[in-house]
Write a structure and sequence with these properties.
heterodimer; A: 100 residues; mainly alpha; Methyltransferase, Methionine Synthase (B12-binding Domains), Chain A, domain 1; 62% helix; B: 369 residues; alpha/beta; TIM Barrel; two-stranded antiparallel ribbon
Chain lengths: 100, 369
Amino acid sequence: MSTLEKFFADLDEKLSIKEIKKRIENGENPQKLLVEARKGLRIVGERFEMKQYALIELEMAEELFRICATAIKTLSGKKDVDLLDKSDEEIEYADTIDLG
Amino acid sequence: MKQISNLLNERLTKAISCSTPDRIPIALRIEYAAAVWAKLNFSEFALNPLKSSEALEKAYDDIGGWDAVDASWTLGTRWTKTEVAKVEISGIDFSGELPHRIIEFPVMKSKDYDVILKEGINSLMNRMMRRLGGKFNEDIERSVFNSFAPIYKHWIEDRGVPVLRGGMVRPPFVQFSMWRTWHGIAQDLLSRKEKVKEVSDAVWKDLVKKGENQSRIVGCNCIFIPCGRASATFLSEKLFLEYFFPHLKMIVKELVKDGFTPRLHCDGDWMPFLEYFRELPKKSCIIELGLETNFKKAKEILGGHICLYGNVPTKLLFTESPLKVKEYCKKLIDDVGHDGFILANDDIVPHNARFENVKMIADTGKKYG
């Protein structure tokens, strides 16, 4: 597991971004970083299946992937990265549990 | 501020203290089903506390009574006047006789955590209510709960029926996840987790004060604590221990110290977290567990410590025969035993529940409890 995969799988935003920044400054291929972030995303899914993570961590992973992809795109100057560009103000969905 | 005494009867008091009462108390949680049975339209049930109480009272009498009711008469009024949320009421916001809907909407912005730190929770609630086109302040909240007080008095004093919900305290994580939405709170746990902790530490006591004040106004010492959003369905153990449980523990301890009975509403899967609830004050709380949590195992873990409340499945109440309900209740009683247990439906009786099935819970509880 690469360092970025580990930071991502641990849902550590600060360390993930720091790692992306460092490696882009060292001239690494941004696509490779994106692949590693995707692998991190897969590990999150595996941890969910093993019940180490729950639904909120899946939501966090989705958000972290968006943040990482944006960082990779911005820092590398590449525009061929597919982003999930949603702001929190746009999200609206019904609840199904008793809120009191 | 008037002091409230313990308004629960001996049967409930014994159950909550995890001892064995003369019979297992029954506490059905009926909302819109009472409106259907009383032929009251849902908008009136939601927004007219007196009429909704009358509908519940008809159900109570037709069923032949039970041991404690929920404050169904407060529901729609509370949600529309004192909750910062988008709420849709049947007959007003949508057609058809369906229960009110709470729409998850990000009324709280990430910068609002600082508003709580600087100005307090009521100030933020007022700001957020204005965003939704409404108004909120402590006078409005007090006036709404004052309007409920005579109905509580009627149930508790005139009818001698305890009510299992006075005020409410949402633990900070639960409250923020509602105001911020799931996506918003997920963003916060990634990008501003220290802020979430700081504000949770700062605000939990104010939330307790709010719930206690609501309870004092209506004269009912049970305080409802919705916990579902912190279940293992939604949170890993790590996040549960970091963002939810420490505040729940402080909230429950404070309420018990002040003479209130916390009623923890725990829908979702709580199995992996149940051991932690043994850290809460002993023989002082009620825990409502949903179907995802194994009731028999829950009794093994929490027996003698917290009173279990539940959990006849919702599905049985509208799809099966009364006989099936009876069989389920008998087995539940056999599994859980007679100590520290309140027999009830799981969560809320669905609005399309069959009257005879709901009545069967009470009948079986009275006969075999």
